[in-house]
Amino acid sequence: MKILIVKNKRIGDVLVASIVANNLKKIYPQAHITFLCYDYAAPVLLHNPNIDYIWTINDKKLKKGLSIFKLSSEIKKQHYDLIVDLYVKLQSQLISLLSGANRRIAFEKKALPFAYTDRVPFLKTKISNYGKAIDDRLNVLRYLNSEIEYDAQPKIYLTKNEIFIAKNILTYHGFDFSKKSLMLGVLGSNPSKSLPLDTIAKIIDYITANYDLQILFNYIPNQKPLVDLLLKKIKNNSKIFTEILGKDIREFSIIMSQIDFLIANEGGAVHIAKALNKPTFTIYSPYVNKEHWATFEDGKHNQSIHLKDVRPELFESLNSKTIKKETKNLYSQFSAEAILSKMNSFLAQFF
Fold it and tell me: Can you tell me the mean pLDDT for 317-329?
């Protein structure tokens, strides 16, 4: 049996979706599973024993001309028996419709006629502490087979050589493995997921003043000018390793495997840390649905905060579209003090 999983989206989305591949092998042990995703997200799937082939595509190239039809034609030649579309956008709908697969399953969303043979409704609310994003994907699996006990935990599979490389990188930069360490995601993947720099600086100043930690910054290379500006706002940079930055998402993952815990804006780094079983504290953008993406929250190992938790009145009568437009204004009311009041209890458990 040949199965194609489609999730051509961001790093965190792809990593969460990988649980479908992990568990499909329980339903169809002999199946050959291909995972289709954007090339920049593919590194989180490397060495996953449940994925036989990672089919990577470039998001910009896919949007040009007739690229989607060319891709669909190539997919049809593979004669897949089952398509599991976890994306359900026009691109993936066309892939499914033109695939020739006898069975094509997707979430219940508006789609092209005959694109799918089976539709799975989204859950109205989360049904476990896995988070709604995980619950919905497990629900797709239960639609295929409700008798199996599924593993909800996304995983990143590292080789011994990768771990060796990570230790060498850290040692080269003077990292002390006998001391506790923190990976700090200082900026989100875009401005709408990033706290104001002054707020971030206050949080870092508190951490460096109150905890004996080695701190590594995580950010996208093109954010370096903003990080340089942030460093000027911080009182004490002596505990911060500013030069240890993975050259890609895979190298970030192997470095993260050697760090004790992570504090970051919601995004791919958080999902990577959780897949490596590292404790996390997540700061959610005002427009992100925390119930959906707050996976494996237990009030201890994985904790988080959303502005709505501390200032619910700001969200009264606002729909999701308005919240996104007002993100910058809402962020300005997300004080460092409010974040630290909860973050402090997360950090204190490690000392």
Answer: 90
